[in-house]
Amino acid sequence: MNNKIWLSSPHMGGNEEVYVKEAFTSNWIAPLGPNVNGFENAISSYLSDDKEYETAALVSGTAAIHLALRLLGTKTEDYILVQSFTFCGTSNPVSYEGANIVFIDSETDTWSMCPDALEEAIVALKGKTIRAIIPVHLYGMPAKMNEILSIANKYNVPVIEDAAEALGSKYKGKACGTFGTMAALSFNGNKIITTSGGGALVAKNRDYIDKARFLSTQARDEAPHYEHSQIGFNYRMSNVVAGIGRGQMEVLDLRVQQRRDNNIRYRNYFKEIEGVSFQTEPDDSFFSNYWLTCILIDPEKSGGIDREQVRLIMEQNQIDSRPLWKPMHLQPVHKDAIFFGTGVCEKLFEKGLCLPSGSNLSDEDFDRIFTVLDSIFKK
Ligand SMILES: *Cc1c(COP(=O)(O)O)cnc(C)c1O
After folding, report:
1. Span from the CA of 261 to the centroid of ligand 1 (angstroms)
2. Of 68, 39, 40, 34, nearest to 53 (Cα)?
3. Residues 6+ apart with CB under 8 A from 18
4. At a CB cut-off of 8 Å and minimum separation 6, what does 142 contact?
5. Domains in the chain with CATH codes
6. Taking Cα atoms as reference points, which of 47, 24, 27, 34 lies closest to residue 249?
7. Is the pTM higher than 0.70?
8. 339 near 84, Cβ under 8 Å?
9. Which atom of ligand 1 is nearest to the CA of 186?
10. Residue-level pLDDT at 2
11. Cross-strand partners of 101
12. 102 forms bridges with which residues in the sheet?
């Protein structure tokens, strides 16, 4: 039996173990230490040349979004406008805070938050407090940030940018993760770089990051004993896993290149095949890290082949592929949530498939993938 080809598996660069070993040698086996500082600095330096952004390393991207909502002072009666087409890590923190979620549709160019649906929702919620807007750069493709930010500014609503999938992506030459009032990154095992599990909160405003560090270490006031005037969280990244992160930052640009090369390979393969289209950079303002290469399969043009058929045949051949995110407004837990849009994300979900996209895929892996795809599309 062949080894499994994964959708997106961890890809170490080499120096991770050096940093992790340092943590052991110096006995910094704690939720702070030199690797945490080093990792945060590496991220801040990566996001902008002049290090305008501060970073707090945390246990997950979900924790970063949760802290961002806290830092904005989210109350249960508030409304949070969340992109529906996403992973639950985007929206769960809104539920943790007990606030009202309003889901926003995607547009067809980037597959992320539709500016028209966003404005429609804001207008419809007149009189309510909208605490934040949470757009996502889906699969690494930058969302239409110009349009989204101009609406956010018009109505004076902060943006929490979910850049969990988009480290290394750029919009108009500016790094994803630098557009929101705050931004969340993720270093989960399947992301473009990983610390096995982890995340970070990024902000230009240092005050937010200082407070995030405070809240993520149980909100301990300054005192010789343990003194608490607020409820905090145990959300800080450990110095051991931050060592993995430092090593991964050294190869991030290479990983972006490798993922983009995968994307080109798939495009070349499908060039001659009817009914298959790609999530594509709309113009050269958009630079995607192509974390995952995603396709849409239209059975009306593909001779009846649909995404589920492709997924199952791949699975029989030990090749991992996955439907696109099921829109959150269709999830049983959100059956009563409000949705604004025309159902673009529902159609994308119906037709879309994420293809194996790891930066560690070999030529042999691609041969296997294309042989299986040949058996489906080139019968
Ligand atoms: C991965 C991811 C997150 C955060 O996930 P964690 O596993 O908590 O780090 C949030 N949003 C999106 C869109 C993601 O893909």
Report:
1. 24
2. 40
3. 243, 247
4. 110, 112, 166, 169, 170, 171, 176, 285, 286, 287, 288
5. 16-251 (3.40.640.10), 253-377 (3.90.1150.10)
6. 47
7. yes
8. yes
9. 9
10. 72
11. 80
12. 81, 338
Residues 320-339: tens digit of each pLDDT: 999 999 999 999 999 999 99
Query: How many residues belong to the chain?
Result: 379
**Ligand 1 near 199 CB (within 6 A):** yes
Closest CA to 72 of 228, 207, 227, 237: 207
Run of H or E including 110: none
Instruction: Say if ligand 1 is within 6 A of residue 83 CB.
Output: no
Which of 39, 44, 48, 42 has its CA nearest to residue 19? 39
What sign results for the dihedral spanned by CA atoms 150, 154, 158, 160? negative
- Cβ of residue 168 lying under 6 Å from some atom of ligand 1: no
358 lines ligand 1 (CB under 6 A): no
Q: What is the phi/psi pair of residue 264, to 5°?
A: -65, -40
Residue type, 189: G
CA distance readout (Å), 137 to 120, 122, 143, 191 = 21, 21, 5, 13
Where do the DSSP E strands lie in the chain? 54-58, 79-83, 100-104, 130-134, 160-162, 170-171, 174-175, 182-186, 199-203, 276-278, 286-287, 293-297, 322-323, 338-340, 352-355
148-179: pLDDT as tens digits: 999 999 999 999 999 999 999 999 999 999 99
CA quadruple 98, 347, 115, 166: dihedral, nearest 10: 80
Residue 332: strand, helix, or coil: helix
SS3 of 286, please?
A: strand
